[in-house]
Design goal:
This protein is α+β, with helices and mostly antiparallel strands. The protein is 40% helix and 16% strand. The protein has 3 domains: 191 residues, Herpes Virus-1, CATH 3.30.40.10; 128 residues; 98 residues, Sandwich (Immunoglobulin-like). Strand 1 and strand 2 form a beta hairpin. Helix 1 runs antiparallel to helix 3 and helix 7 packs antiparallel against helix 8. Bound molecules: zinc ion (ZN) (6 copies). One zinc ion (ZN) binds next to loops. This is Tripartite motif-containing protein 2/3.
Length: 493
């Protein structure tokens, strides 16, 4: 009989298995082996036969799980029936609810307690006894459900696959290119005759070959998976780098501007101190003047008051004794000079010379933040000369492009070119950017041999170019005539 290819140990829990493999992703019902058997879609998701029929429309079947649309020709039979689920279904049944399994032989409602491996059927006590009595089934391998429950893999649950045309075990395989399917003994005699070009093989041998081939492909796809994982990690790190670098650049901007802001603030304080100084000088002078005038005012008022008082006495001799002194004082005060004009007036101003609109315009356009979206695979490095010759200037044009291939026009301050000479020594070479799409790298190679030019931004490689430098005294090729040699010689003299 055919051996199940699956030998491995199951890694998922029983209920995960049920959820993942035994329930239709269209209607969520469990698959059965009658109407709602599983059909496998090219995306490796499954649908029950019913859902496949319901969802297929105009030659296309949308997968409810991944939304991929699968086109098909003819009828839905091109999505193969997946009989591997039957084994898993029985496995899960025995594991999860052995008490709910009913006998498949008498189709009564009797609880099953055995399973015949040869018939792939659950049996009740009575049918088990009958199985043992009947000649044809006497030798069948029958296991108790209790011992089946302890099984950790699907071997014991293998369903024998029968030929739909002849109801015989599918024990052979037709390996003819356009057949490629399991067949029964009768198929090989009737529809897949070897003398009609059919290639009949042992199913076990083919299964082993195909298992081996699938293992190899699993390894391959796992390798792809590991590569994707690696790339995801790399890109994740790049996201981190972008954020970190952004913070660093912001700090750099802060440091630079802090310095200028401090300078500006210092100047503002100086100017305000100047204002204070002028105010103090002016106010001080004026207050001084006020103090003198107030003293003069006081003296004047006192004298007038005293004189008024003097006139109140009705004592002529006494009056006359002092009137001379009083009048002298009044005259003196009346004629005394006093400050009429303020020594200072309110004349302080602010001249914004040097802090003009021009300066503000400069500030609003000073410095800049750049960001390169150069995409390495799109970098083009082209030599300007046909042959690079030792001791002669060579020039390369570098065109950086973004992910969709559009050349970058912005100057990038940190574009760096590094040259590796034939001795393995590296040296940075000048990159000239003139605002156009291409940058130029120019240098003079001192040696003949293999050179490599690397272009990078902030140590991120953006492209490389390898080239040969010809020795100056031995131009390549024997077909170069004398005049060309002369020409070549004269260029470096
Ligand atoms: Zn369904
Ligand atoms: Zn799918
Ligand atoms: Zn029974
Ligand atoms: Zn049996
Ligand atoms: Zn057959
Ligand atoms: Zn065939």
């Amino acid at each position: 009989m055919a051996e199940q290819a699956f030998k491995g140990t199951l890694t998922l829990t029983t209920s995960q298995l049920k959820q993942k493999f035994l329930c239709c992703s269209g209607c969520s019902n469990e698959y059965d082996d009658v109407e709602n058997f599983a059909r496998l879609l090219p995306c490796l998701h499954s649908l029950c036969n019913q859902c496949v029929h319901n969802l297929a429309k105009d030659g296309a079947l949308p997968c409810p799980e991944c939304e991929q649309k699968h086109e098909f020709k003819g009828d839905v039979a091109s999505f193969p029936r997946d009989n591997t689920r039957q084994d898993l279904m029985d496995f899960v049944r025995v594991k999860l609810a052995p008490g709910a399994i009913i006998c498949q032989s008498c189709r009564d409602t009797k609880q099953a307690t055995f399973r015949c491996k040869n018939c792939s059927e659950f049996l009740c006590e009575e049918c088990h006894t009958a199985h043992r009595r009947t000649n044809i089934t006497r030798g069948h391998e029958i296991l108790e459900l209790q011992s089946l429950q302890k099984k950790e893999n699907l071997d014991a649950f293998c369903h024998q696959q029968m030929c739909p045309d002849h109801n015989r075990e599918l024990e052979l395989y037709c390996n003819k290119d356009d057949c490629q399917k399991p067949i029964c003994f009768l198929c090989a005699m009737v529809t897949h005759k070897p003398d009609a070009g059919h290639d009949i093989q042992e199913i076990k041998k083919i299964s082993e070959e195909k298992t081996e081939a699938m293992r190899k492909r699993i390894d391959d796809v796992n390798m792809t998976g590991r590569e994707i994982k690696q790339i995801i990690e790399n890109i994740g790190r790049e996201v981190q780098s972008v954020r970190t670098l952004g913070k660093e650049v912001a700090t750099e901007i802060n440091n630079n501007f802090d310095h200028y802001i401090q300078t500006l603030e210092k100047r503002r304080d100086e100017l305000k101190r100047d204002v204070d100084k002028y105010v103090q000088i002016k106010a001080g002078t004026l207050e001084n003047q006020l103090r003198n005038l107030k003293q003069q005012q006081k003296r004047t008022n006192e004298a007038a008051e005293f004189a008024d008082q003097t006139l109140l006495y009705n004592n002529p001799p006494a009056f006359l004794q002092i009137q001379g002194t009083v009048v002298d004082r009044l005259d003196k005060l009346h004629n005394e000079w006093f400050d009429r004009e303020p020594h200072e007036v309110a004349t302080i101003g602010f001249s914004c010379k040097g802090l003009s609109q021009e300066f503000q315009n400069k500030v609003s356009s000073m410095a800049k933040v750049w960001s390169s979206n150069a995409y390495q695979p799109n970098t083009k490095i082209t030599p300007k000369q046909n042959d690079a010759v030792q001791d002669e200037t060579v020039t390369f044009l570098v065109v950086l492009c973004n992910y969709v291939g559009k050349p970058l026009t912005e100057d990038i301050g940190h574009l760096k070119a590094t040259l590796t000479d034939p001795n393995g020594a590296t040296v940075d070479v000048r990159v000239i950017q003139n605002g156009s799409e291409e940058s130029r790298v120019t240098f003079v190679p001192f040696y003949a041999g293999s050179y490599k030019l690397d272009v990078s931004i902030l140590d991120k490689p953006l492209g490389e170019h390898e080239f040969q430098v010809q020795p100056r005294d031995k131009p390549q090729g024997s077909n170069i005539d004398e005049s060309q040699l002369d020409g070549a010689t004269s260029t470096y003299i």
